[in-house]
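It is worth pausing here to work through a concrete case rather than discussing structure prediction in the abstract. The textbook approach is simple: state the sequence, then state the predicted structure, then interpret. We follow exactly that order.
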Amino acid sequence: MELKIILKLLEIKLYLKCNKLDALLISPYIGNIIMSKKCELTGKIPMKGHNVSHANNKTKRRFLPNLKKVKFTSELMKRSLKLTVSNSGVRSVDKKGSFDEFLKAVKNKNLSPRLKKLKKSILIKSPFKKKPAAKSA
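Step two, the predicted structure:
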């Protein structure tokens, strides 16, 4: 019985490694898939550190990113998405002007898999704009 459970867990871990699903964690006792605390726009993840007491005793703790569920609308795709985003991710989108402009500018390594697909479709649909040529002296 224990051998079957171990084989099943190894099979799941191999599947996750092959498909590079870094946002998923597997609980070895329950077998449920749990979403991680990761920003879908910026890729921010929890950091590790210590609580330090007055007597300089150190206990482990986690610094969690400030995550919120935010609804973004894409003008080019004419649809809206509900994303788990950090506060700095929301500010970055505001700075770029729109969700579409942010997706065009951001690097793929920080995005979640579903946003990578959306970025690809936005780049296909968006009109190509030439940058003005720099004048030489």
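Step three, interpretation. The two ends are 78 Å apart (CA to CA). Residues 21-33 have pLDDT under 50 and may be disordered.
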